[in-house]
Automatic annotation (TrEMBL):
Residues 50-70, 379-398 are annotated as: Disordered. It comes from Streptomyces caeni. This is Glycosyltransferase family 4 protein. Residues 58-70 have a biased composition (Low complexity).
Length: 398
C-alpha cells in the first residue's frame, strides 16, 4: 500500500543526506513494516540490550517510539533528500531514491545547497511537513541542516538511523552530556561559525534527549553498549538488503574498500597509498571500491600506482556486495563497512577483514581522539578478521 493511502496515524518524515542514510531508513521501514512492498516479508527485531537505556526483556521487541509508548504507528513514510553537491553522492542518492519508490515510499528531492538562498527556500517548503509529522528521522544529527530543521518540528518521536560510525560517537556524546561535534574535528576552541550556530545546536541536542513528551530511538548496526536513559536502541541487521538482493556470485581473490580518511585530514595521503599497494600485493586484491568522498586525483593515483581496478559504486557497498560479483575476501580500513558487511553478507562465504591504522600514518591535523576512535571501530567489529598494518619496509619498498 502506498504511504499516501495509508491511514490510522501520523506520517513519518525522514531527512537523508547520503546514500547510506537512505538505505538505513529503508531498513527501518522494513523493520517497522511501514509501506514495504518488496519481496522480503517485514518483521520486528529485538532491541540491542544497553546499559542506562531501555533494556530488551524476554519476548520484548523494539518498535517505533510511538508504538512502544502506546501511541500510533506512523501511517506512511516520506523521504526528503537534502541533496549534496558532489556528483558521486548525488548519483548514488538518485539510485537509492528509485529503490525507495519501488518499495512504496514517497521521495522528495530538495536542492538544499543550490545557492545562497536555497537553505531558506528549503526550510520554508519543509516547515509545514515538519509541523504535521508525528515521527521525524535523521541520518546525521551532527548536520547543521538537520539541527536547524529539528528546531521546527513538533514530532513526539525522533529516530536517528545510522550514518556510519558517527552514530557511535553521537550516542557517546549524549551519554557524556557533550555538545555534538564530529569525531574527526580537531579539539580546541570553537570557531566563529560554531559560536554563531551554538544556540541551534544546543536546541537540537535538547530535542534529541528523551523527555515526558518526546521519545528517541537509535536504529543501528553499530555496537552501542550504553545509551542515555530512555533512548531505545533497535538492531539493524540488514534484513531488507538480504531479502532484496543476492546471494552474490563470488570471485577469486580479494576486493579492497577505500576510505575518505585522507580527505578528512586524518591519514597522510602518501602513507595511505603505500599501505594500499602493500595490502593489495599481500592479499591478491584486484579491485578498489572507492568511497564516494574520495578525490578523483587520489583515485587516479591508486589506479596508476597500485594496478588496482578502481570501481565507483552506484549504490552503497552493502548492496553492491550483496548483488555481486564480489571477492571471497573484502579488505577494509576501519570504517562503517566492517560492521555492516558481515550483516549484509550473512550466510555467504565472504570473509571480511579489517586493517588497523598505524599511528604513524596520522597527520598532525588529526584530532587527538582519532587513534582511539579508529581502534574502537576495529576492536568492536563482529564477524571480521584482523589484519595488521603493513610493515614499514613493505610500505616504503612496496
Amino acid at each position: 500500500m502506498s504511504p499516501r493511502a495509508a491511514t490510522g496515524g501520523p506520517r513519518a518524515l525522514a531527512f537523508v543526506e547520503s546514500p547510506v542514510q537512505l538505505l538505513n531508513v529503508l531498513e527501518w521501514a522494513h523493520t517497522h513494516a511501514l509501506g514495504a512492498t518488496g519481496p522480503g516479508a517485514p518483521r520486528r527485531r529485538a532491541a540491542i540490550p544497553v546499559r542506562g537505556g531501555r533494556r530488551s526483556g524476554a519476548g520484548r521487541t523494539a518498535v517505533s517510539g510511538a508504538a512502544a509508548a502506546g501511541g500510533q504507528t506512523p501511517a506512511g513514510l516520506t523521504l526528503v533528500v537534502l541533496a549534496p553537491t558532489d556528483p558521486m553522492t548525488r548519483g548514488q542518492l538518485r539510485r537509492m531514491a528509485e529503490l525507495a519508490r519501488e518499495e512504496g515510499h514517497e521521495v522528495r528531492w530538495e536542492e538544499a545547497r543550490g545557492g545562497a538562498t536555497a537553505p531558506f527556500q528549503t526550510v520554508g517548503r519543509l516547515a509545514p511537513l515538519l509541523r504535521r509529522a508525528g515521527c521525524v528521522m535523521m541520518g546525521d544529527p551532527f548536520s547543521r541542516y538537520v539541527q536547524l530543521l529539528l528546531t521546527i518540528t513538533r514530532a513526539h518521536d525522533l529516530v536517528v538511523v545510522d550514518d556510519g560510525t558517527a552514530t557511535m560517537e553521537f550516542v557517546a556524546q549524549l551519554v557524556r552530556g557533550e555538545r555534538l561535534v564530529r569525531w574527526h574535528r580537531k579539539g580546541g576552541r570553537p570557531g566563529a561559525r560554531d559560536l554563531l550556530f551554538a544556540p541551534v545546536s544546543s536546541s537540537a541536542r535538547r530535542r534529541l534527549t528523551p523527555g515526558a513528551r518526546r521519545r528517541v530511538e537509535v536504529f543501528s548496526s553499530m555496537p552501542i553498549h550504553e545509551a542515555p536513559t530512555g533512548v531505545a536502541v533497535t538492531a539493524n541487521d540488514f534484513a531488507w538488503t538480504r531479502a532484496r538482493f543476492g546471494p552474490p556470485r563470488l570471485t577469486k581473490g580479494a576486493d579492497l574498500v577505500g576510505t575518505s580518511l585522507v580527505e578528512t585530514g586524518v591519514v597522510d595521503g602518501e602513507r595511505y597509498l603505500q599501505a594500499v599497494r602493500a595490502l593489495a600485493e599481500a592479499h591478491g586484491a584486484g579491485r578498489y571500491f572507492a568511497h564516494r568522498r574520495e578525490s578523483s586525483e587520489k583515485l587516479h593515483r591508486v589506479a596508476a600506482e597500485t594496478g588496482l581496478e578502481v570501481v565507483r559504486p552506484d549504490l552503497p557497498l552493502e548492496l553492491i556486495a550483496r548483488r555481486g560479483p564480489i571477492g571471497r575476501t573484502i579488505l577494509s580500513f576501519p570504517s562503517t563497512v566492517v560492521h555492516t558487511l558481515p550483516l549484509a553478507l550473512a550466510g555467504t562465504q565472504v570473509r571480511v577483514a579489517v586493517c588497523d591504522i598505524d599511528p604513524a600514518w596520522l597527520t598532525d591535523r588529526a584530532s587527538p581522539r582519532a587513534q582511539g576512535f579508529l581502534s574502537g571501530v576495529t576492536g568492536t567489529a563482529r564477524g571480521v578478521d584482523r589484519v595488521p598494518p603493513p610493515a614499514e619496509q613493505d610500505i616504503t619498498t612496496g
